[in-house]
Amino acid sequence: MPGGTSRKATAAKWQMASCEDDDSKKQVLFTQSEIGLMNTMRALWEQHVAWTRMTIISIAANLPDKELVSQRLLRNAKDMGNVLKPLYGNKIANEFCYLIREHLLIAGQLIEAAKAGNTREAANAERAWYENADEIANFLNSINPYLPAAAVREMLYQHLALTKSEAVARLSGNFAQDIAAYDKIERQALTMADTITAGIVQQFPQLFAVN
What we know:
By secondary structure, this protein is mainly α. The chain contains seven helices and no strands. Helix content is 82%, strand content 0%. The longest helix has 30 residues, at 32-61. The chain starts with a helix and ends in an 8-residue tail after the last helix. The model has no long low-confidence stretch (mean pLDDT 91). This is Acetylglutamate kinase.
């Protein structure tokens, strides 16, 4: 298969880069274009979890900035879609934007329902949240075979579970647990960002082969 060797080398490189052994002496070299995509993807997922956190805080405390913060959070969906446009075109980018926007809207509904003590509405929102995660995982796999649906789904489920624990802690006034949860969320979001970046680089090795 054309590009097969290049893709295998790319996959091996990203696997080495994700190694958590701090004592590893191996060096992993990335091209400038790979670093550019990685930095962009990481920034977007950092913004994703940061503005989600600010939305949780605003809803929990009923702050006057709630609507403005929510609007800024939703901009993240468009920004994520725009990253895909040069690679996959407008249609796919817009579909991804829609799925991420739904993910964010459902999160807001879940937090609002939990704050109001509406357990039925919260349960319905959580169910829709996980269904949306399934759709995102299947969608990413449909456009990129190097993003296995099962692996992406597992990461998204972790993201949802951690975000829920963050929101519950904040609503309960357990701020130490809330902060600890966010630390985990941030690390996990960067893992998701790097996984998506690695999949894109493997799919389009010719675009990332030179600086």
